[in-house]
Amino acid sequence: MEETNETTQVEMNNQKTGGIGPVVGSIIILLVILIGAYYFWNKVQDKRLQNQTQQEQTLSESDEVSDIEADLNTTANFDDIESDLDAMDQEFTN
Q: Is the pLDDT of residue 92 over 60?
């Protein structure tokens, strides 16, 4: 009878010590996901920066009113500014 109790206790001790592997595996998976997200975020930011740089390069360096107006018309997007202002107004009033 004592052998069964000792065997049961040894088996229970073996089960308790096996918990480090899943924790390490979870940490590794989390790190891989975070590194992938960081890489993707940098790619998106680089594209935005390249687009902004290209837009800035197309602007003229003239001080003439007609050239400034042409630059505004090519780069600025005022189509939905009214809805954006309304949304901001609602956020501040709530």
A: yes
